[in-house]
Design goal:
19 helices; single chain; mainly alpha; three-stranded antiparallel sheet
Length: 523
């Protein structure tokens, strides 16, 4: 396919996505669910096909194909030739930039569609009315495309109470790949919130060895020769044994270098960007719905703040109509505002501000920062925490649900990112919104214990109830009451107690046989 045709096809397709708004806030019927799910799934297939075609054609590194023109021989050097070279180079660079930009948009769109589909599949279960077989998570796509194994066409939609999802963020995702446009539309506080969220999702794992580079001295054909060897690192790799196995017992390692990788919590920059944008816009709209109520309850004199806001609005309007020069306009605004505040008694003739009024302004600034900047970060951390606690390592490895490219296991450095979970923001959410959110003390220890237990039971084929296990860890490590912990994950107290017993067995075996079994496992 011609390059310009491929770019045009991609831009046209992304343009159609931009024109259609996907609002999944209030899905109630199977029909509406299937319409949105099928639309997103079809888009994703087309986008993945576009990405694959572009990468085959070299769009991933387009500047490599630009021809580097050497110097023209002095005898043949002419102004026209130099202009032609410059013009051709500029043309090729513009084409390379177009390739890079369109591939970037396609990748952003793919990330957004995966997030949207992950939220939809966490939101619901689909049940066959005939055989009562239940499809959840990633299996929903199979149920939609292939139907139930009993061949019954009668399916029904059910809410998944244990799912981790936010259908409201789907309409804020850059589904058409225009994440730069959405970033430009953010307010000043929104940009600050966005930066902080991306920083959290970028939190890197301490470097783990990915590959090794070695220089090996080998005795061949009656003489010593040096060979460069590259080796993939695996768990418990004995590189000396591998070298001697390949080159003989006389082989000697002269140089060894470890190459490390540092995967992030969410190991894809486009997913990081899309999630951050969606959560920031969603949280911003939610805060705007109750910010005035919080301000009125916190301010000592709300009337003074309202007067200040109205005066500032009038002053800006007046200054803009009188003065054209930006510097003079700024000075005029300050003079007019000070005059109005003095007339109202909020500032005296010496320029000293009323203490109550100044306290309320400072309090509002802090409140705006706490809610518009910290609230979206608290929401996404709460969702990721619930997802880690309510799912198994195996499930997170196969499908990351609403958080594509989420690391199935975190180290201590990455877990420290969750210390930003703000108690005061949690209190505001519980009081002014419908969020069923709980502040979890000792959060670092809670997540560490979950990952530690998963490492112990991995490969043992022990049947666990992940949501109930998450509730049990919250109760035992996070000091959350039993009923509240069970309510967070929509499980019964009996299920939580059953997992708690298993948890204690793995921590402290109660019988000699169990103790011996665990000792054998550790060996």
């Amino acid at each position: 396919m011609n390059e310009s045709v491929l770019i045009g096809r991609a831009e046209k397709f992304l343009g159609r996505i931009r024109q259609k708004t996907v609002n999944a806030d209030d899905i109630k019927t199977l029909k509406s669910f299937l319409e949105i799910h099928s639309y997103l799934k079809d888009n994703l297939r087309e986008l993945q096909d576009l990405r694959e075609t572009m990468e085959i054609k070299g769009y991933k590194a387009p500047y490599r194909s630009i021809m580097k023109y050497g110097p023209i021989p002095s005898g043949d050097r002419m102004a026209e030739d130099l202009q032609d070279v410059s013009r051709h180079t500029q043309h090729f660079r513009m084409r390379a930039a177009a390739k890079k930009n369109i591939l970037d948009r396609v990748k952003s769109s793919i990330a957004s569609h995966k997030i949207a589909l992950g939220n939809l599949e966490e939101f619901s279960n689909i049940t066959c009315s005939s055989c009562q077989q239940k499809f959840s998570g990633h299996d929903i796509s199979l149920a939609i495309s292939q139907g139930c194994s009993c061949s019954s066409p009668h399916l029904k939609l059910e809410l998944n109470p244990q799912g981790v999802y936010r259908l409201e963020i789907i309409k804020y995702l850059p589904l058409s790949g225009e994440y730069m446009v959405k970033m430009a539309e953010l307010s000043i506080l929104g940009r600050e919130a966005f930066r902080k969220m991306v920083k959290i999702l970028k939190q890197e794992k301490r470097g783990i060895v990915k590959t090794l580079s070695l220089v090996v001295k080998v005795f061949e054909d009656g003489r010593w020769v040096r060979k460069r060897v590259n080796m993939d690192a695996t768990d418990q790799l004995d590189y000396e044994r591998e070298v001697r196995k390949k080159y003989g017992s006389n082989a000697r390692i002269e140089f060894l270098q470890f190459h490390r990788k540092k995967p992030s919590i969410i190991n894809d920059k486009h997913v990081q960007t899309a999630l951050s944008l969606a959560y920031v816009k969603f949280a911003e709209n939610r805060v705007q719905g109750f910010f005035e109520l919080v301000l009125e309850r916190s301010a000592e004199n709300i009337a003074k703040i309202k007067f200040y806001d109205q005066a500032l609005k009038n002053v800006v309007k007046t200054a803009n109509s009188i003065e054209e020069d930006p510097e003079h306009r700024k000075t005029l605004k300050e003079e007019l505002l000070t005059q109005k505040l003095v007339e109202e008694g909020l500032v005296n003739r010496k320029g000293t501000w009323d203490k109550e009024f100044l306290h309320d302004l400072q309090m509002r600034d802090k409140l705006e920062n706490d809610l518009f900047v910290d609230l979206p970060r608290t929401l996404i951390l709460w969702d990721i925490i619930r997802y880690y606690l309510s799912t198994s390592h195996d499930r997170r490895s196969k499908s990351s649900g609403p958080f594509p490219n989420l690391r199935p296991h975190l180290d201590k450095n990455q877990i420290s990112a969750f210390e930003d979970f703000q108690e005061q923001v949690v209190d505001v959410l519980k009081e002014y919104s419908r969020e069923k959110i709980v502040y979890i003390p000792h959060l670092k220890e809670v997540l560490s214990k979950k990952f530690e237990l998963e490492n112990k039971i991995r490969g043992l084929h022990v049947k666990m109830n992940p949501p109930a296990l998450g509730a049990a860890i919250l109760k035992m490590v996070g000091n959350i009451p039993l009923k509240k912990a069970a309510c967070i994950f929509y499980v019964s107290t009996a299920e939580v107690k059953a997992e708690e017993d298993k948890f204690e067995t793995f921590e402290r075996p109660t019988t000699r046989k169990a103790q011996k079994f665990l000792e054998l496992i550790k060996e």
